[in-house]
Design goal:
single chain; alpha+beta; BirA Bifunctional Protein, domain 2; 9-stranded mixed sheet; 3-stranded antiparallel sheet; 14 helices; 12 strands
Length: 364
């Protein structure tokens, strides 16, 4: 196993390479505001982060990643365009997988540039591929923006679309909702009795939580409206299912998705962006004919990404997490920009995993 000094030396070397690409070195505090992280991730972050409290600053968390504070820094004081690099420790609780490290070093590269988003996508991916050159890794890519565009354009109620968007990162829950909205599955057995009652609050059922009567009645009325809404059409459902199952090399994936756009025309602008990205990657020497594209990629682990996503994996070491991940997070800049926004993309690499894979290759 690589020691700490080896990991730090590799991180420093990688950071220098990102500096040579035009990045400015930045650092962020180890302690981050819990409120900011909770606003972004929700309460789920508590299960993954180390939480502490400060009498003056309130609830704090040990830095779970760099992207959020770097975006916050850029949106408050950064010039445009901008490129940043950094390296340092991040902290993640691993209660369900004690074999995984709960503290490790990341090296990152972030680009804020509104002039050429496709070019920025290609720049970040190709720089990461260059840093990882020589390692036995598989690159996977996807585009969260295609799926979000498909959901946003469904011919159904806004309430249903909001629910589907909220559970985009939970594929099983997303599937359950989709089947229900398409009329394939019914809701909970006792729901109809509740919704059909003239006085729902008189139903003999346990009350859970602290909702007041007006809030309960408002929720019941929303459920009644949802039950009365027509189902998602078969052709839209078939289009979504085909979209989610696309897994091909980039050019063939685009071809398949163009066919899907016949039934889901709302994804056409996102496909145009994918086509521009393919051209930009080719211009940087990336062999897109061997680059995998998975339409569902990133849905379980990349909550703040909203466009192009990528990762590099050691297929010979399925026990290891991704060596590098990244993606586009335009919406995050809008959320943290207090009214302003800028297209942005970035990613992180773990030098400890790079060294471990190199050692494994030496002994193979």
């Amino acid at each position: 196993m690589p020691n700490r000094s080896q990991i730090q030396a590799r991180a420093a070397m990688m950071r220098v390479r990102f500096e040579a690409a035009g990045a400015h070195v930045v650092d962020t505090p180890l302690l981050q505001s819990a409120g900011m992280l909770l606003d972004l991730y929700g309460e789920d972050i508590r299960a993954r982060a180390y939480v502490t409290s400060d009498a003056l600053r309130g609830e704090q968390m040990l830095r779970p990643d760099f992207t959020l504070p770097v975006v916050q820094m850029h949106m408050s004081e950064g010039a445009e365009p901008a490129r940043y690099t950094y390296s340092g420790e991040v902290f993640r609780r691993q209660e369900h997988d004690p074999d995984r490290a709960n503290e490790y070093i990341q090296v990152g590269y972030e680009v804020f540039d509104r002039e050429d988003p496709a070019g920025a996508d290609a720049e970040v991916f190709s720089l990461f591929a260059l840093q990882l050159r020589g390692l036995p890794l598989r690159a996977a890519t996807g585009d969260i923006g295609i799926l979000t565009a498909a959901v946003a354009g469904l011919k159904t109620t806004d309430r249903r679309k909001v629910a589907l968007m909220r559970h985009l990162w939970r594929p099983r829950r997303f599937r359950v909702l989709l089947d229900r909205y398409a009329g394939r599955k019914q809701g909970p057995e006792d729901r109809d009795a509740l919704l059909d009652a003239d006085d729902p609050l008189s139903i003999d059922a346990p009350l859970i939580g602290k909702r007041r009567a007006p809030e309960i009645l408002e929720r019941i009325e929303a459920l009644r409206e949802d039950r009365a809404a027509p189902p998602i059409s078969d052709y839209e459902l078939a289009g979504l299912e085909t979209l989610l199952n696309v897994r091909e090399t980039m050019p063939f994936a685009l071809e398949q998705l163009r066919d899907v756009a016949v039934d889901l025309p709302q994804i056409t602008p996102a496909l145009d962006r994918l086509e521009a990205r393919i051209a930009a990657l080719q211009a940087r020497g990336v062999d897109v004919n061997r680059l995998d594209f998975e339409a569902s990629y990133g849905r379980t682990s990349m909550e703040y990404y909203d466009g192009f996503v990528f990762g590099f994996y050691a297929e010979g070491r399925p026990d290891l997490p991704p060596v590098a991940t990244g993606g586009r997070y335009d919406a995050l800049t809008r959320q943290l920009g207090d009214g302003s926004e800028i297209p942005a993309i970035g990613g992180v690499i773990r030098p400890d995993l790079m060294l471990e894979i190199e050692e494994s290759a030496q002994w193979a």
